[in-house]
Amino acid sequence: MSSLPACPSCQSDYTYADQGLFICPSCGHEWSAEAAANSDDSRQIKDSAGTLLQDGDTVTVIKDLKVKGSSLVVKIGTKVKNIRLVDGDHDIDCKIDGFGAMKLKSEFVRKV
């Protein structure tokens, strides 16, 4: 097993090092050793104030949010408990009392 990192572009294991760069012969992607060391597999999601969010956190809504397809509005200051972080445009999956399951953008919440 090679100790070199897999290609971040195509995930190929056949990478090799050349003068401080890692090169993938499968797709031709090149990246630096510093980029490989700084790469983090988990995406960091931050709230509106820049605080890192984690699964299970409690957040408050900082802006009135219209619910698409409904006349309901999630009011400012609504507490949302036990959030789950997901990939995508709306990166928070949660249940809001009175509304049910919903996806929110992290830019509209603040960690409590």
Automatic annotation (TrEMBL):
Residues 3-32 form the Protein YjdM N-terminal domain. It comes from Rheinheimera marina. Residues 45-112 form the Protein YjdM C-terminal domain. This is Zinc ribbon domain-containing protein YjdM. Belongs to the YjdM family. It holds the Pfam family YjdM. It comes from the Bacteria. NCBIfam families: phnA. InterPro entries: YjdM, YjdM_C, YjdM_N.
